[in-house]
Design brief:
This protein has 235 residues and is α+β, with helices and mostly antiparallel strands. It folds into two domains: 40 residues; 174 residues, Cyclophilin-like (Cyclophilin). Helices cover 35% and strands 21% of the residues. A hairpin with a 3-residue loop joins strand 3 and strand 4. Helix 2 crosses helix 3. The longest helix has 38 residues. The protein is globular and about 45 Å long.
């Protein structure tokens, strides 16, 4: 009886030890596989070769000077929650045209918003409270566009414009990533000289009017977010 009890105890201990060895083996293999995975170079935005330099105030003008020569497109379509808006970009404001085409090709505007809306004045877009937008900006760079307010364009209804770098504290008030469209009937000529007109709406002012009519909070942000689904080049 004692022999049988001893033998059963031996088998139980042997099986437990064998299972522990198997478990350790599985764990060791898993760790080795994980280590091999960790040791492999990972593809991240930081080690992917950039097609364009990270822009700053020192290199942006030279970059866009060449970019506008190689990228002559001047018509874009903005698709919003309210419909489509077609815009003609002016060749005379070449840096601003090139910048808008560049950002369009980088898909920067996708999922940004009309974040400032004032009925019978302007609708402003190109920003968002989403962190993804901030990450896009960091990747592209921080830069300003040169003042280009003396091309003979005025802030008529339907023009697309952005702040001039001549404004005080330009990095707070001027951004190459944002733009506004004048919705005011009769235009907003008092903006001339402080903001650069670089294009105009050629189709979709009814969409602009719908956006301008939405309810907003005290900061002019629409109470219901209005997204830019995409911006694409049409010519």
């Amino acid at each position: 009886m004692r022999f049988i009890l001893f033998f059963c105890t031996f088998l139980l201990l042997f099986n437990c030890e064998d299972k522990q060895k198997q478990q350790r083996t599985v764990t060791e293999i898993s760790n080795e596989v994980q280590k091999e995975t960790d040791d492999k170079p990972k593809v991240t935005p930081n080690n992917v070769k950039r097609k364009f330099p990270k822009l700053n105030d020192e290199n942006a003008m030279e970059f866009f000077l060449q970019y506008e020569k190689d990228n002559k497109e001047d018509k874009v379509r903005i698709t919003t929650d309210f419909g489509e808006i077609d815009i003609l970009l002016f060749d005379n404001t070449k840096f601003h045209r090139a910048n808008f085409i560049f950002l369009t090709k980088q898909k920067y505007f996708e999922n940004t918003q009309f974040y400032r809306v004032i009925d019978n004045f302007i609708v402003q877009a190109g920003n968002s409270d989403d962190r993804a937008t901030a990450r896009k900006r960091v990747k592209i760079g921080k830069y300003l566009l040169p003042t280009d307010t003396k091309r003979g364009y005025t802030h008529d209804r339907g023009v697309i414009s952005m702040p001039s770098s001549e404004i005080d504290n330009p990095h707070k008030l001027a951004s190459p990533f944002e733009f506004f469209i004048v919705q005011q009937r009769g235009g907003a000529k008092f903006l001339d000289g402080d903001y650069t007109v670089f294009g105009k709406v050629i189709r979709g002012m009814d969409v602009i009017d719908k956006i301008a009519a939405v309810a907003t909070d005290e900061g002019d942000w629409p109470q219901k977010n209005i997204f830019i689904k995409k911006v694409e080049i049409i010519e």
